[in-house]
Write a structure and sequence with these properties.
By secondary structure, the chain is mostly helical. It is built from 18 helices and no strands. Helix 1 crosses helix 6, helix 10 packs antiparallel against helix 18 and helix 12 packs antiparallel against helix 13. It is globular. The two termini are 28 Å apart.
């Protein structure tokens, strides 16, 4: 389907951005309402953390299976259905807010968000994008996901603050979450009616279990995976800029929190479109990822050299790293097009790549926490060095991607 930037297309991206935000809204609610959730579920800190571990397991295992399902069955139906599944599991907490019920709900959230919504969302963006503009469209998508995050976060905090107590506030937020999931499911159905995902005979061919292993063994899948891994690892490690600011520079918790919000949402609006536009301008998202990882190396090395009085320079680096990360996130999915991965295998490839790319969720927070607990401020330096090494790996993967691009072009000429 050929698409132009129009009011209709912008509306599509608004709905898609809200859909992406709602897929993770309840799962990561503890990021903003941590203590109220402890009180409502009557659980310990470790138990609340276990909910994210359960969700993270689906991030690793669910994405490859979900990608395969999206290639094999009706991707649009899966996308719409994901919001319905999320809404139904969210509604369960309206009747029972025990911790055991929360475990069941978080399993459901993993199915709805990571098995269904994530791979389908990526394939929908691929279908909407015009030929040669995948980078721009993924950057545009990243920006509107940031807009969706701002809107939904504001609604959640407003609804919670209107309640009489913490338990009532969480209940109100769950009601909001449930209603929005169903509303967005309907909106998704409307915006996807004119989106053609399977166009050619090859694309309409049903993918088999054998095809899954073909994709799994393909070097292109692993190049895509390492590109995601390098950028996502930085997205995780830069979250520790907040406690590093208070520990090494004596900053206040309030100001550090404000910077975190600006880093998470404000910089996404800038970095995503820049990364997407650069991908299309250079006609190579792999080149953008090389630039992104090189800049990450420079910024983290510069951070380690700053003294405790260089507060302004550190704040500048915090925001710059966030822009760079979102440049990468606005580009890495477009690598699949550059590598010549067939549309038939698009969602399966992304699903497998996501399992590897987002694997830092399983180990990085425990690893960095161990360093900080045992080495104090020096633990942050180990974190920065680790990130520099991962960025070098990302550059190597992108260079290999450029090699395969030339190989694909040579094969096409023959």
């Amino acid at each position: 389907m050929k698409s132009r930037f129009s009011i209709g297309l912008i509306f599509k991206f608004v709905v898609l951005g809200l859909s992406w935000t709602m897929a993770y809204n309840l799962a990561f609610l503890q990021y903003t309402l941590y203590d109220p959730m402890l009180e409502t579920f009557g659980c310990s800190n470790a138990q609340l953390g276990l909910l994210l571990t359960i969700f993270g397991i689906f991030n690793i295992l669910g994405a490859p299976i979900g990608g395969w399902l999206c290639d094999k069955f009706n991707c649009k139906a899966i996308y719409v259905g994901s919001m319905i599944v999320l809404g139904l599991f969210s509604a369960l907490l309206l009747f029972n807010t025990s911790y055991s019920m929360a475990v069941v709900v978080w399993i459901g959230l993993g199915i709805g968000a990571l098995l269904m919504n994530y791979p389908a969302h990526v394939k929908v963006i691929h279908a909407i994008a015009t030929e040669g503009n995948a980078g721009k469209y993924f950057g545009f998508n990243e920006s509107f996901c940031g807009v969706g995050g701002i809107i939904i976060s504001a609604l959640v905090l407003y609804v919670f603050n209107q309640a009489a107590n913490a338990a009532a506030g969480i209940h109100a937020v769950i009601v909001l979450n449930t209603v929005l999931c169903f509303v967005i499911a309907v909106a998704n159905w409307f915006i996807l009616r004119d989106v053609t995902i399977e166009k050619s005979t090859e694309e309409k061919e049903k993918i088999s279990g054998k095809d899954f292993f073909i994709v799994l063994k393909s070097p292109k899948t692993w190049i895509l995976a390492l590109g995601i891994f390098s950028v996502y690892t930085c997205a995780c490690s830069m979250s520790y800029f907040t406690p590093y600011y208070t520990a090494a520079f004596g900053g206040t918790v309030t100001f550090a929190g404000a910077m975190a919000i600006l880093r998470l949402y404000g910089m996404k609006l800038i970095g995503g479109p820049i990364g997407g536009a650069l991908s299309d301008k250079l006609k190579s998202p792999s080149k953008v990822l090389i630039l992104v990882n090189a800049l990450i190396i420079v910024c983290y090395a510069a951070t380690m050299m700053l003294g405790g009085e260089a507060v302004s320079a550190f704040i500048f680096l915090i925001l710059l790293v966030a822009i760079i990360v979102y440049m990468g996130k606005g580009s890495y999915y477009a690598v699949s097009e550059e590598l010549g991965i067939p549309q038939k295998y698009a969602a399966t490839s992304v699903g497998i790549a996501a399992a590897v790319g987002f694997s830092p969720d399983i180990f990085i927070f425990v690893l960095i926490g161990h360093w900080i607990d045992n080495y104090g401020v020096a633990g942050y330096r180990y974190t920065f060095i680790f990130q520099i090494c991962v960025a070098v790996l990302g550059i190597c993967a992108s260079l290999l991607g450029l090699y395969y691009k030339k190989k694909v072009a040579a094969q096409s000429e023959k």
